[in-house]
Write a structure and sequence with these properties.
This protein has 13 helices and twelve strands. The strands form two sheets. Strands 2, 3, 4, 7, 8, 9, 10, 11 and 12 form a nine-stranded mixed sheet that branches. A three-stranded mixed sheet has the order 1-5-6. It is globular, with a radius of gyration of 18 Å. By secondary structure, it is α/β, with parallel strands linked by helices. Helix 9 packs across helix 12. 49% of the residues are buried.
Length: 325
């Protein structure tokens, strides 16, 4: 995925008036890691190894929310209206492109309205960096501007110990990737009593492992009050008319639970077919996918399409939900 747009950040700073979100600036290349500067892949520990006990304390060191920008975040939550839906929210899809922060905030605001007292939030998203394994998790909690977000170590351990999933614990890779790190402040802000477990998936992950992950999550959702949130951006690098056509294809596939179509999608439709598949596998038992919202970077920015910011086209977003009535 071509999300390294450093020139775009500078362009946005030049054109956006004070107080507006920094749009693509929230998805720049990796931030400086706080106290965990080892290359991705180093310092990973498989559950059950001799090093596990020694590394346990290190796992508890908190990860930083390096993609948090106070003004943009507070603007996104200010006045965010929860998406209307009767019933218990069991799973959802939100963007990780923080330009769509208001949409992200509205989803979590809806989750906060549930009578269900969520004890855990499971975040699943695409891995944007090469990693030594196709599924990455972390045992650490997060230091957020709103307090500590604890790790649901019970579920995280299941991700590592389930041989069909075989996730690798890699704190540095998790902290570095905006796919989930950017959502952590929203989880802590809206669901302050929940813990979190995180999974990054490469698009090359075998379908058998993706299905095993979906099944493990489904079982956990039946065991305790937990919420699955999949972090997915949709059409990339196309101009609005072409992006709208692709979004139409994607919507039809979601409405019909067409897993084969989803598996064939490229960045022109969605950046993470595996994460979207995990959502669908968990949503199917609750009926039709709920389409809460749809948006695009060009409509949020309200800049003319001749602006150089669209050199790589637009990005589109769906907010999806699975609701138990």
């Amino acid at each position: 995925m071509r999300k390294g747009r450093l020139w775009l950040c500078a362009a946005l700073l030049a054109v956006l008036p004070a107080g507006r979100p920094l749009s693509f600036a929230a998805v720049q290349e990796a931030p400086v890691l706080s106290g965990m500067e080892q290359p991705v892949g180093e310092g990973t520990v498989q559950a059950g190894s001799e090093e596990e006990g020694t590394a346990d304390a290190a796992r508890r060191s908190l990860l930083s929310c390096a993609y948090y920008e106070e003004a943009s975040f507070l603007q996104s939550v200010d006045g965010a209206q929860p998406y209307p839906a009767e019933g218990r929210l069991r799973a959802g899809v939100v963007p990780h492109h923080l330009l769509a922060g208001r949409m992200i905030a509205a989803f979590f605001a809806r989750a906060a309205q549930d009578e269900t007292h969520y004890e855990s939030v499971i975040l699943v998203g695409p891995s944007h960096y090469p990693v030594p394994d196709r599924m990455i998790t972390a045992y650490s909690g997060w230091q957020t501007p709103f307090g500590t977000l604890e790790n649901d170590r019970t579920f995280t351990r299941r991700l590592v110990e389930n041989g069909r999933i075989a996730a690798m614990a890699d704190e540095a890779a998790m902290e570095k990737d905006h796919a989930l790190a950017g959502l952590i402040p929203y989880v802590r802000y809206y669901l302050p009593d929940a813990a979190v477990s995180t999974v990054l998936i490469q698009n090359t992950a075998p379908s058998s492992r993706v299905e095993a992950l979906a099944g493990e999550i489904s079982a956990y959702l039946r065991e305790k009050p937990a919420l699955l949130v999949c972090s997915v951006d949709f059409s990339h690098y196309l101009m609005p008319d072409a992006a709208a056509e692709r979004d139409g294809q994607t919507r039809r596939a979601l409405e019909s639970y067409d897993y084969a179509a989803v598996s064939r999608f490229t960045d022109s439709n969605v950046d993470s077919p595996p994460a979207l598949t995990v959502f669908l596998k968990n949503a199917e038992s609750y009926g039709p996918v709920r389409f809460f919202d749809h948006g695009a970077s060009d409509t949020i920015l309200s800049l003319p399409l001749t602006d150089p910011i669209y050199q790589d086209g637009t990005t589109t977003y769906f907010i999806l939900g699975a609701v138990e009535e």
